[in-house]
Specification:
Elements: H1 13-23, H2 26-29, H3 36-48, E1 53-57, E2 66-68, E3 74-80, E4 83-94, H4 98-117, E5 120-133
Parallel strand pairs: 4-5
Antiparallel strand pairs: 1-2, 1-4, 3-4
Helix pairs in contact: 3-4
Length: 144
């Protein structure tokens, strides 16, 4: 854009609109609602990124389900206003310590879902559905 003098206009209209929208009062901007399904997907990806946690794949009605290290754990979310309860069904890679692995999973979900979605995660229940031997595991535990 240029002015009548032929020089470029230093402040385009879209820049002004963006600055005005950014600084507007939250009551004027509106509100944001995050669906339970969206939080489930976010929490599932967070869980999949936790070391030692895996998901499951295949099967029908629980029959034929197999562990899959590339799959996301199953997650179910219940929202009550801005408070969430989360249930995770996952596998844990053997021989990872169950207590510390699930504590890490619970902490990561609580912190990251809370910061990314703007909800207060009050409860994270975890069901360990399988112990999964890693691809490089011989099935034997070595003492160190």
């Amino acid at each position: 854009m240029s002015t009548e003098s032929g020089r470029p206009n230093p402040e385009p209209a879209h820049r002004y609109r963006a600055e005005t929208q950014r600084t507007a009062d939250p009551a004027v901007r509106g509100r944001l609602t995050v669906a339970e399904r969206a939080i489930e997907k976010i929490a599932g990806q967070i869980a999949a990124d936790v070391p030692g946690i895996s998901g499951s794949a295949g099967g029908f009605l629980g029959i034929g389900t197999r562990s899959d290290e590339g799959a996301r754990p199953k997650v179910r979310v219940w929202l009550s206003g801005a408070v969430a309860s989360i249930h995770v069904s996952a596998g844990v890679r053997y021989p990872a310590p169950l207590r510390s692995t699930t504590e890490l999973l619970r902490r990561e979900i609580r912190e990251q879902v809370g910061s990314r979605c703007g909800v207060d995660v009050r409860q994270v229940d975890i069901d360990i559905e399988a112990l999964v031997a890693s691809a490089r595991s011989t099935g034997r535990r070595e003492l160190q």
